[in-house]
Amino acid sequence: MLSTILFPGLFFTISLALFTQYMVRKISARYQNRMGPSYVGAFGVLQPFYDFWKLLCVKEIVRTRFSMVKAAELFFLMGLVFPIGALVFLPLSLFRVNSEFDVLIFFYMASVMPLISIIMASMAMPGPYTSIGVSRILSIVTIAEPAFFASIIIPVYLTTRTGGVLFMSLSGYVNVLKMWSNPLSAVIMLLCLIAYIISLQAKVMYQPFNIPEAEQEIIAGFETEFSGPLLALLRLLHDVDLAISLLLGVYIFLGGPLPFRHLSIGGILLLLVKYVVLVVVITLVKNVMGRYRIEQALLQLFKYSLIPAIVAAILVSII
User: Fold this and answer.
1) For residues 45 and 50, what is the distance between their CA atoms, to the nearest angstrom?
2) What are the C-alpha distances in Å from 289 to residues 209, 227, 245, 297?
3) How many CB atoms within 10 Å of residue 110?
4) pLDDT value at position 215?
5) What digits encode the pLDDT tens for the residues 65-86?
6) What is the largest CA-CA distance in the chain?
7) Residues 240, 198: Cα–Cα separation, whole Å
8) Which contacts qualify for 235-239: CB closer than 8 Å, 24 or more apart?
9) Rounded to the nearest 5°, which phi and psi values hold at 224?
10) Which residue from 18, 28, 242, 297 lies 20 to 30 Å from 43 (Cα-Cα)?
11) Mean pLDDT, rounded, for 164-189
12) C-alpha span between 55 and 228 (Å, rounded)
């Protein structure tokens, strides 16, 4: 029970998500010669929580008679439950679930369900800009989600195929450093890492793939009709999705706490350092790129995320 509530359950996941938002905002501010979060908490670290709490306390505005606020709230809560529950499949969990193909279940719970929840919640609050934003989300995920899935599943297969237990995250991450030390498998890992970073940018709608919420074109896109608690839940779901995707990347590509153990001080510190490195990378891409048009985004996703993943899959099949 405590594991569900505290670590690595609800409290840990929300804390990590809000801390990730803080790092993204702080690093982005430095790139743009701004201060970023500074006043709430030490160095402004509690600013994301304060913003979340303010939105929760604001009254929801129902803009049309067709708006279904309760349905949207339900979809967002469902979207939060699935990725938080998926943490039991990661080696980070104290009471983890281990089985063959557990990565497939993890991907469904942590990646597919949040996306479905956002789309369904948006459609529960209909509007002209909402429809355009949702259509853009669906256009992007037709390439981004397969590329993201391939970038995860290929390294897991590569690290588990010699252990007798396929696609199991626990037995896979311990072999990641060996994969990087082998020239041929290192090429495959690098291709998957590139596909992972690019597809993740599109998955969380960071620049240059923030097309579904392009303010200059469609106000706020799929989130135009959200305010108050609904907007708070949407942003929290976005941050949870980002945090868990980054945590998965730390294990799949960087070996988690290796060469230290999980419960050691060195393991915890190294896991945190690797996580921060990935946050810095995606924030760098977010700040140095401008927004693409939808057709440009689809082309770039195909070239720099799907094609590297396909090439990696071909290389895996011949070695």
Assistant:
1) 10
2) 9, 28, 21, 12
3) 23
4) 59
5) 677 778 888 988 998 999 988 8
6) 61
7) 18
8) 235/21, 235/52, 235/55, 236/14, 236/17, 236/18, 236/52, 236/80, 237/76, 237/79, 237/80, 237/114, 237/117, 237/118, 238/118, 238/204, 238/205, 239/17, 239/18, 239/20, 239/21, 239/48
9) -60, -40
10) 242
11) 78
12) 5
Find out whether the peptide bond into 208 is cis, omega within 30 degrees of 0: yes
- Provide the pLDDT confidence category of residue 283 given band limits of 50, 70 and 90: very high
> What tokens does 289 get?
């790129």
d(CA 89, CA 85): 9
Q: Could you tell me the sign of the dihedral formed by the alpha carbons of 259, 98, 141, 129, in that order?
A: negative
For residues 210 and 294, the answer to whether their CB atoms sit within 8 Å is: no
> 42: pLDDT confidence band, cut at 50, 70 and 90?
confident
Could you tell me the two tokens for 247? 């945590």
CA distance 267 to 264: 5
Distance, in Å, from the CA atom of 210 to the CA atom of 159, rounded to the nearest integer, reads: 33
The Cα angle at residue 129 between residues 128 and 130, in degrees rounded to 5: 90
Residue 291, classed as helix, strand or coil, is coil
How far apart CA 153 and CA 313 sit, in angstroms, is: 10
Q: Omega before 259 cis (within 30°)?
A: yes
**Which tokens sit at 158?**
């590569």
**pLDDT given for residue 244 in this prediction:** 93
Residue 28 CA to its chain's centroid (Å): 18
Amino acid of residue 68: M
Domain borders along the chain are: 2-318
Token readout for 2 is 């405590």
Tokens 């195929």 belong to which residue? 161
CA–CA dist 183, 168 (Å, integer):
24
Please answer whether residues 91 and 262 qualify as being in contact, where contact means their C-beta atoms are separated by less than 8 angstroms: yes
The DSSP code sequence of 239-250 is HHHHHHHHHHHH
